[in-house]
Amino acid sequence: MSVQSPNKLLVSVATYNEAENIESLLGSIRQYVKNADILVVDDGSPDGTGQIVDRLAKTDPKIRVIHRTGKLGLGTAMLRAIEHAISNQYDLLLTMDADFSHHPSYIPAILGGMKNKDVMIGSRYVPGGSVRNWPFTRKMMSHGVNLFARGMFGLRAKDTSGAFRCYRVPMLACAGLKRMESLGYSFLEELLHRCNLVGARIGETPIIFENRRNGTSKVNFVEAFRSLGILMRLGLHTLITKRVAYKKNWHLEPIRNVAEKRRAA
């Protein structure tokens, strides 16, 4: 089922060596959201992923690729997509992996949840969601990180580490993302934490996460443990300063900005 989003929607995909997947993925995304713009942030993939997207963009003006030099990582790629979404005044930003572990068939359900949410997560850990073809160690690591993030940050979402999400862009503009400390695997948990701090309404819809169809997994366990240390530092800072107690409401930011301009005048 395809949907015509009434909002200005940007779908963002970060890539590194996804030549085997990218063309079929973008075609599948277009099947489910015909009116969306698609942004691919490519980290100079040696396998020519970026050049494939350049070719596709010649026949689909709603596809754009940002070519970066070197493997700069998921966190900086997502920040680049967020900057693009804010500067071009999109209403919604949907992010997903490039390897079909996030199947585009779930996009309509995620967008449907945005009617009354500010963040919607394609969740592996709510009823109806699951993970397929993961080794036991990776499952345990994922569950452990999610338990830790929920406990340290007071998050109610069951899946705090998944990248298949949709965000309300004006909310992201209020979330203080210039202060982000994480660029690796902890980026997604910190981003959700910062959305929560500005009063974002967070929802989840079940997905079945399947291990990549083609290509090589980018999981780096050393980086995963390093990211866990960043989460621990951020979590302790949150608990010590009680930042959750001073949660703002991003819906009020435009009103505050107008009031401040009037006082300054």
Explain the layout of strands and helices:
Elements: E1 9-15, H1 22-32, E2 37-42, H2 49-57, E3 63-67, H3 74-87, E4 92-96, H4 107-113, E5 119-123, E6 130-132, H5 136-153, E7 165-168, H6 169-173, H7 187-197, E8 202-206, E9 208-210, H8 221-241, H9 253-264
Parallel strand pairs: 1-2, 1-4, 2-3, 5-8, 6-9
Antiparallel strand pairs: 4-7, 5-7
Helix pairs in contact: 5-8
Structural account:
- This protein has 265 residues and is of the alpha/beta class.
- It contains 9 helices and 9 strands.
- The strands form 2 sheets. Strands 3-2-1-4-7-5-8 form a 7-stranded mixed beta sheet, with helices on both faces.
- The longest helix is centred in the C-terminal third of the chain and has 21 residues, at 221-241.
- The protein is globular, with a radius of gyration of 18 Å.
- Residues 258-263 have low confidence and may be disordered.
Q: What is this entry, summarized?
A:
Helices cover about 40% and strands about 15% of the residues. It is α/β, with parallel strands linked by helices and about 260 residues long. The protein has one domain: Spore Coat Polysaccharide Biosynthesis Protein SpsA, Chain A (Alpha-Beta Complex), CATH 3.90.550.10.
**Terminal Cα separation, in Å?**
51 Å
Tally of separate helices? 9
Total DSSP E strands: 9
CATH superfamily: Spore Coat Polysaccharide Biosynthesis Protein SpsA, Chain A
* Anisotropy-based shape: globular
> How would you write the strand order of the largest sheet?
3-2-1-4-7-5-8
The CATH topology turns out to be: Spore Coat Polysaccharide Biosynthesis Protein SpsA, Chain A
Unreliable runs? 258-263
